[in-house]
Design a protein that fits this description.
The complex is a heterodimer of chains A (about 325) and B (about 475). Chain A is mainly alpha-helical and about 325 residues long. Chain A contains 14 helices and no strands. Chain A is globular, with a radius of gyration of 20 Å. Chain B is globular, with a radius of gyration of 24 Å. The relative contact order of chain B is 0.18. Classes of the chains: A mainly alpha (about 325), B mainly alpha (about 475). At the A-B interface, helix 7, helix 11 and helix 14 of A face helix 7, helix 8, helix 10 and helix 19 of B. Chain A: It comes from Desulfacinum infernum DSM 9756.
C-alpha cells in the first residue's frame, strides 16, 4: 500500500488530475463549510439558517458567491493599491498547496512527500503575511489593528502548535503523512498523546482566527478587522481561505491524532478509508463551529498570556516527557 | 488642510517615542482598587447576595499587563504623542449601542484617553413637549429610552399626577407595576443579549430575544404597540386588560426562571466570560456617588439604592422583593445584579397578579379622563367633555414637580414646570443613560480596546436615552 502511494514520482497524469481535484474539492468544501456554519449557527441559535435557495439552503453560498463576484471591487482612497489587490490572492494561493499532501485515504495522497507535515505548516503560516499586507494596505485603523493582532497571535500560537506536532513526529520518526497515519492502525495518537492533541486543537483554532480566538476580526471591536475595507470577491477570497484553512487544520488533526483513514482500534467496519477521514475531519470542523457559537471572545492580553504562559510550557513539557519515555521505556 | 491633518494616518514610521515622554512602564501608575465601604454596602439580611455566589469562584488573577489605569496628562496636545493613534469608534460601529461616537486615543491596544461624543440622536424631546398638551407628550416619552417605553411613560405620568394631585385606582396601579416590571425584564434581556454579543458570545442574544419576543407580544396584546406601548394615561390606563392576558403573563413568569438557566449556562460559569468581566470597570462607592450613577451600575458596587425601595411609588412598598447588590463593582457583578433583577421582577409580577383587584382603570374625574366612547355618542355632556380634553387638554395647576422612578437603566426623573395651562412650561428628563455614560472615560482609560467595548455594554446605555 505504501509503495503504491509513494511510487508516483514520474506520474504527471496523476499530478494534474490531483491538482484539478484539489481545486474543485477546495472550492466545494469551502462553499459547503460556509453553508454548514450558517446551519450550525442557526440551529444553536434557535433558527433554521438558510432555507430558501435549494434544499435546506444548500445552494445559498453559491448564490452568495455569484453575488460577490458581481459586486464592485472598491479600493479605498489613499490605500496602497498594489498591496491591496495582492493580499486576497496571497491569502488564497497557499491554502491550496496543503491539499497535495493531505492523506485522504490509503490511495488518495496526491504527493506523499517526506516533509509533508512541514510543508503544510510552512504554507499555512503564509496566510499571516497576507493578512498583514491586507490590513496594512487598507489604510484603515481597524484593519491595521486587526493585522497587528493577527501577527502577534499567529507568532504566539505557532510555537505550541509545532511543539505538540513534534511529540507525534518523535513517536513515528517521520514527517510523512502516510507513515504518520499507518502508525495509528491499532491505536489513535489521541489516546497516547492527549495533551498534544488538545494543545494542537486549541492552537489550530487560534491559527485559523476562529472564535474564541477571533480577535483579528473581532466584529464587535474592530468592525471586521483586517478585511474591513474589502468588498466583493476580494472579501470572498478571504472568506473562502478562512474556511479552507479550517479544513486543513482539521484534516491534519485527523491524520495526526484521530488515526486518519483508520477506524477506531483497527476496526474499519468495512467503511472506506476516505469516508472515515472525511467523517472525522468534518466532525472536528463541527466542533470548531460549535466553539464559535458558544464561547465569548478572549481578550488580546489573555490570549497572549494563555499561549506564552500555559500552552508553550505545557507543550514543551509534553515533548520532553515524550522524548524521555521513548528513550527509556 | 486635507483630511490627513484631521485624522493623522497611523503609520508605523511615525511610531517614535517622543524624548520627553516617559516609557509606558514609567508612566504606568497602578491605581489600587478602591474598597467598598461596608457601611454603604447594605446587604439584605436574607442571605441572598451576589457575593455569596462570588465566594465560590476562583480568586481573580492579577490585572493584565496593560489593564491598569494610568495617569495621563491631558493638557499636552496630540502632536506631542507621535506614537498615539486616534480611533473614532462610532457613530457607525457594531457595538456602540446606537449612535455613540467615542474618540479613543490608543497606544498600541491601550486606551489612554477616551472621549464620548453624544448628540447624534438628539431629537429635542424636552423642547417638543413644551408645544404639546400633556397627553400629547406621552408618546414622546416612549421614545426617550426606546427599549423601555412603558418605564418612561410611568415616570412622566406619575409626575403629572403628582402635580394634579390625583391618585389612580388600585387596579390601574397594579397593572402599571406589572407592565413596568415586564418592561424591566425586556430591557435587561436586550442588554444581556447585546452585552454578550459585544464580548463575542453571539448565541445568548437569540435566547434573550426569544423571551423578549414573548414580552413584546404581551405588550402588543394589551396596548397595540410593541416597542412603544404608550399604555399608561394621565390618571390611569388607556384600556383594561384583554381576556386571558393575565394567564399568559403567569405562564411567562412560571417558565422564565427556567429559561434564564440557558443564559447562565452559557455565561455565568464560563471561564472566558468571567475573565472578560471580572475586575473590568471597577467602580468604588465613592466613584458611584461622585458621578451620580444609579440603577444596576450603582447597585453593582454595593449601593442598595433602588427608588422602588428607597422612595416607593405605585405601591411598590406592598411587594416583597430583594434589591440585589454586588460586592466588587465590576462588570461581572453588574451582570449578576441585572440577572437577579429579572428574577425579582418576575416575583413582583406574580405578586401583583395575585392581588390584582377588580375595579376602575382610571380616576373618575371628567377633567382628566376621557369619557366612554358609547357615552360620547349618546350624551351631550360626554361629547363636550371629550371635545374639551382633546382640544384643550388637561389643565394642570401652576407649580413645579419632581418625580423619580426606577427605570431599568437607573433613576429616571421628570421635572415639570406648569404655568397652569394644559401644556408644560418646561419638562426636564433626568435620564439614567446620560448620567451613567459620564463614567465611561474614567473606566476605559488605561484599559484595552476590547474592554472599552465591554464597558459600553456594562453601563447599559441607549443613545436615545442619552440624547433625548
Amino acid at each position: 500500500m505504501t509503495e503504491a502511494v509513494t511510487n508516483t514520482g514520474g506520474d504527471w497524469l496523476r499530478l494534474i488530475v490531483g491538482l484539478i481535484l484539489v481545486l474543485i474539492f477546495s472550492q466545494l468544501n469551502a462553499l459547503f463549510l460556509v453553508w454548514l456554519e450558517r446551519k450550525v449557527a442557526g440551529h444553536i441559535q434557535l433558527r433554521y439558517g438558510p432555507m430558501e435557495v435549494g434544499p435546506h439552503g444548500l445552494l445559498q453560498t453559491i448564490v452568495d458567491g455569484i453575488k460577490l463576484v458581481g459586486k464592485e471591487l472598491i479600493t479605498p482612497f489613499k490605500a496602497d493599491k498594489k498591496l491591496f489587490v495582492i493580499a486576497p490572492v496571497l491569502v488564497f494561493m497557499p491554502v491550496l498547496v496543503p491539499f497535495l499532501v493531505l492523506p485522504f485515504g490509503p490511495e488518495l495522497i496526491i504527493r506523499d512527500m517526506n516533509v509533508g507535515l512541514l510543508l503544510i505548516f510552512a504554507f499555512s503560516t503564509f496566510s499571516v503575511l497576507a493578512i498583514l499586507v491586507g490590513g496594512w494596505a487598507s489604510n484603515n485603523k481597524y484593519a491595521l489593528l486587526g493585522a497587528i493582532r493577527s501577527v502577534a497571535q499567529n507568532v504566539a500560537y505557532e510555537i505550541p502548535l509545532l511543539l505538540s506536532v513534534m511529540s507525534v513526529v518523535l513517536m513515528v520518526h517521520s514527517f510523512k503523512f502516510s507513515e504518520l497515519v499507518m502508525a495509528q492502525q491499532r491505536i489513535w495518537f489521541i489516546f497516547l498523546q492527549p495533551v498534544a492533541a488538545i494543545i494542537y486543537f486549541i492552537c489550530a483554532t487560534a491559527e485559523t482566527n476562529r472564535a474564541p480566538f477571533d480577535i483579528p476580526e473581532a466584529e464587535s471591536e474592530l468592525v471586521a478587522g483586517f478585511h474591513t475595507e474589502y468588498s466583493g470577491m476580494r472579501f470572498g477570497l478571504f472568506f473562502l481561505a478562512e474556511y479552507t484553512n479550517m479544513f486543513i487544520v482539521c484534516a491534519v488533526a485527523t491524520s495526526l491524532f484521530l488515526g486518519g483513514w483508520h477506524g477506531p482500534f483497527g476496526f474499519s467496519l468495512g467503511i472506506p478509508g476516505v469516508v472515515w477521514f472525511l467523517a472525522k475531519t468534518y466532525f472536528l470542523l463541527f466542533v470548531l463551529m460549535w466553539f464559535r457559537w458558544t464561547f465569548p471572545r478572549v481578550r488580546f492580553d489573555q490570549l497572549m498570556n494563555f499561549s506564552w504562559k500555559v500552552l508553550i510550557p505545557l507543550s514543551m513539557l509534553n515533548l520532553l516527557v515524550t522524548a524521555l519515555v521513548l528513550k527509556f521505556v | 488642510m486635507g483630511r490627513g491633518g484631521v485624522y493623522p494616518r497611523p503609520l508605523i514610521t511615525r511610531c517614535k517615542r517622543h524624548p520627553k515622554e516617559k516609557s509606558l512602564s514609567q508612566v504606568k501608575e497602578n491605581r489600587t482598587r478602591g474598597e467598598i465601604r461596608p457601611v454603604l454596602a447594605q446587604r439584605y439580611a436574607d442571605g441572598w447576595g451576589v457575593g455569596a455566589k462570588r465566594g465560590r469562584l476562583q480568586p481573580s488573577a492579577s490585572p493584565p499587563f496593560a489593564a491598569t489605569r494610568r495617569q495621563v496628562s491631558v493638557e499636552k496636545p496630540m502632536s506631542q504623542y507621535p506614537e498615539r493613534l486616534i480611533l473614532n469608534v462610532g457613530p457607525q460601529h457594531p457595538s456602540t449601542h446606537g449612535v455613540l461616537r467615542v474618540v479613543v486615543e490608543l497606544e498600541g491596544e491601550v486606551v489612554v484617553r477616551c472621549t464620548p461624543d453624544i448628540g447624534y440622536l438628539h431629537r429635542g424631546i424636552e423642547k417638543l413637549m413644551e408645544a404639546r398638551t400633556y397627553q400629547q407628550c406621552l408618546p414622546l416619552t416612549d421614545r426617550i429610552d426606546y427599549l423601555a417605553g412603558s418605564a418612561n411613560n410611568l415616570g412622566f405620568v406619575l409626575a403629572v399626577e403628582k402635580l394634579l394631585g390625583v391618585e389612580v385606582p388600585p387596579r390601574a396601579r397594579y397593572i402599571r407595576v406589572i407592565i413596568a416590571e415586564m418592561t424591566r425584564i425586556a430591557s435587561h434581556l436586550f442588554w444581556l443579549g447585546t452585552h454578550a454579543h459585544d464580548l463575542g458570545a453571539m448565541t445568548p442574544l437569540f435566547y434573550a430575544f426569544r423571551e423578549r419576543e414573548q414580552l413584546m407580544d404581551l405588550f402588543e396584546a394589551v396596548a397595540g404597540g410593541r416597542l412603544f406601548p404608550c399604555y399608561f394615561r394621565i390618571g390611569g390606563l388607556a384600556r383594561d386588560l384583554p381576556d386571558g392576558w393575565t394567564t399568559e403573563v403567569r405562564e411567562f413568569c412560571r417558565t422564565f426562571p427556567d429559561k434564564m438557566k440557558d443564559y447562565e449556562t452559557l455565561l455565568t460559569r464560563n471561564p472566558i466570560w468571567i475573565r472578560r468581566t471580572r475586575d473590568v470597570g471597577v467602580l468604588t462607592v465613592d466613584e458611584v456617588l461622585d458621578y451620580g450613577l444609579s440603577g444596576p451600575v450603582a447597585r453593582g458596587s454595593g449601593i442598595a439604592w433602588d427608588v422602588r425601595r428607597a422612595d416607593p411609588y405605585c405601591g411598590y412598598e406592598e411587594f416583597d422583593f430583594v434589591v440585589p447588590v454586588g460586592q466588587n463593582g465590576d462588570t461581572y457583578d453588574r451582570y449578576l445584579v441585572r440577572l437577579e433583577e429579572m428574577r425579582q421582577s418576575c416575583r413582583i409580577i406574580e405578586q401583583a397578579l395575585d392581588r390584582l383587584p377588580e375595579g376602575d382603570i382610571a380616576v373618575d374625574d371628567p377633567t382628566i379622563t376621557y369619557p366612554k366612547k358609547t357615552d360620547v355618542y349618546t350624551r351631550i355632556e360626554s361629547l363636550i367633555q371629550h371635545f374639551l380634553l382633546v382640544e384643550e387638554g388637561i389643565r394642570v395647576p401652576e407649580g413645579e414637580v419632581f418625580h423619580h422612578t426606577e427605570a431599568p437603566k437607573g433613576e429616571l426623573a421628570f421635572f415639570i414646570v406648569s404655568d397652569g395651562t394644559s401644556r408644560p412650561f418646561r419638562v426636564r428628563a433626568r435620564t439614567p443613560s446620560f448620567v451613567n455614560l459620564q463614567v465611561l472615560s474614567k473606566l476605559a482609560e488605561g484599559r484595552l480596546l476590547a474592554d472599552l467595548i465591554a464597558l459600553i455594554g456594562t453601563i447599559d446605555i441607549v443613545l436615545a436615552d442619552v440624547d433625548r
